[in-house]
Design brief:
eight-stranded parallel barrel, two-stranded antiparallel sheet, single chain, alpha/beta
Length: 332
């Protein structure tokens, strides 16, 4: 069930928050969980860490200090995409964070990628376990439930870009997704705040049939802010059609860099200690969605990548500041 909170039992010490951060955190609705994609970035010294640390040290020991930041109430566990994690590994993470912290967890590519790939990302052959219900349960959902317990926020099935042959028969994909979602165990008995969410990388998914599959099986659309997808305003009709309900979002990459711009953004933004390409319009739209969702009594799980604006912790602070314009102080 996730274990007891052990705090930051390591040499990684949290950066002491200033009065601005404390005030923002006090004004933030407890239903809103903001955070970043992973936490192992030495460039966050002075923002999240007090002092410099190696990436390997932060990956191993930094989560407890990360969770002491007053605005960082979730984190996206991205390493689970590359290899399934065990219940024991999940429990180790859960033990490092407080009771009100919630994890966003990416399903393994073993389940969500239609193609088996080489180490360099080249497609090798079709993946026989693509959206397979049994694999989804045994390699992802059940270990997460057993290890994270009530600290689950969102279990996200991110479906990478599909081969064109599969996209030519979207109804078959909707049926395959529906079969998997129907087979998943309910989260509520163990994780009352937990939701199943589906994120996509092809705009072909963003049609009413996809919405209907999600609604029928109690899943949420994970708003993907990535140049492969339409801008946020163009995705809002899908979110409105599923209102009300929890909101899940992963802000991955600034649109300035294009669909294949991850490495360019990484080079431009390192060491991720400041906003390089601010996107206040996206932040304002997100703040409006977050305020409306929390005011309706629904949870919010949002993670931001360094490649969104240049520094994920700085983006979180800027988003929290945008929320103050919507009267977050009166949210409970």
């Amino acid at each position: 069930m996730g274990g007891d909170y052990a705090g930051a039992m390591s040499n990684v010490i949290a950066q002491p928050p200033d009065d601005v951060l404390r005030t923002l955190a006090q004004a933030l609705s407890p239903r809103i969980h903001l955070g970043t994609s992973s936490w192992s970035f030495p460039g966050w010294a002075g923002l999240v860490w007090a002092g410099m640390h190696r990436e390997a040290e932060l990956a191993r020991d930094g989560l407890g200090a990360y969770a002491e930041h007053p605005l960082l109430r979730t984190v996206s566990l991205d390493r689970s995409f590359y290899r399934p994690l065990t219940a024991e590994q999940y429990a180790g993470y859960a033990a490092q964070v407080p009771a009100d912290f919630r994890f966003i967890v990416k399903a393994p590519a073993l389940v969500t990628d239609a193609v088996l790939r080489a180490a360099d990302g080249r497609g090798l052959q079709p993946n026989p376990a693509f959206l397979d219900p049994t694999t989804a349960i045994t390699a992802f959902v059940q270990p997460a439930l057993d290890g994270l317990g009530a600290k689950i926020g969102a279990l996200v099935f991110e479906i990478p870009p599909l081969p064109s042959a599969l996209r030519r028969d979207m109804p078959a994909l909707f049926e395959r997704l529906a079969r998997m979602l129907a087979a998943l165990p309910a989260l509520a008995p163990t994780a009352p705040d937990g939701v199943i969410a589906v994120e996509v990388r092809d705009p072909d998914w963003l049609v009413p049939a996809f919405r209907d599959v999600l609604r029928e099986h109690g899943a949420r659309y994970c708003l993907g802010l990535h140049p492969r997808l339409p801008p946020i305003d163009a995705q809002l009709p899908l979110l409105r059609a599923m209102w009300p309900g929890p909101f899940v979002c992963r802000w991955s990459l600034n649109r300035l860099h294009g669909a294949q711009g991850y490495e360019t953004a990484k080079a431009d933004y390192a060491p991720f200690d400041r906003l390089v390409d601010p996107d206040p319009e996206t932040r304002h739209t997100l703040a409006r969605i977050l305020h409306g969702t929390a005011s309706a009594g629904q949870p919010v799980y949002l993670s931001i990548n360094n490649k969104a604006e240049g520094s994920a912790p700085c983006s979180v602070v800027a988003l929290a500041q945008a929320l103050t314009t919507f009267g977050q102080a009166d949210a409970v």
